[in-house]
Amino acid sequence: MHRRAAAVLVAACCLMAAGCAGSSRTDDDYRRKAANTAEAAASALGTARVATSAAGRGNATSAYLSVVLGEAEKDLEGAEQAFTSRQPPSEKADRVRDEVSEALTDAADALAAARIAARRGDASAWGSHTGELTRAKQRLEQLEERLS
């Protein structure tokens, strides 16, 4: 019984440790991780943008759009959580963190607004959401390019 409890405790500790990202040792490493985060977030927004565009043209239902946007939100949140759990190694890296975090927050806001409109069946708003998602995606792509 004690061995089983110990094994469960060890497994739980391993899972918790895997969920925590450590610090980046250098500014260069942190910048690369920020660029990867921006790329992953831009990808999630790209999926959402294609879906809202298709729905705006009448080629997708609001139910389908809602599911796609919900999944894109999960992907974006995962990228954001992985990044924000990292410890910036310097004040210079703090500025990178702030810039990427702000872009991620704006992207999450645009995605949430699109998902809400989809769940409400507000087809008239899908075109404007496509534009918002496009702008947020472009901002993340520019960040990714600059930080790479």
Please explain how this structure is put together.
It is a single chain. The protein has 148 residues and is mainly α. The protein contains 5 helices and no strands. Helices cover 83% and strands 0% of the residues. The model is unreliable at 1-21 (pLDDT under 50).
Report on the biggest sheet: none
Helix-strand category: mainly alpha
The residue fraction in helices comes out at over 70%
Order of helices and strands: HHHHH
Gyration radius over CA: 19 Å
Report the total helices.
Answer: 5
Strand percentage: under 5%
The general outline is elongated
Mean pLDDT level: 86
Tell me briefly what this model is.
The chain is mainly alpha-helical and 148 residues long. The protein is built from 5 helices and no strands.
Write the layout of secondary structure elements.
Elements: H1 2-19, H2 27-56, H3 62-84, H4 91-120, H5 126-147
Helix pairs in contact: 2-3, 2-4, 2-5, 3-4, 4-5
List keywords for this structure.
0% strand, elongated, 148 residues
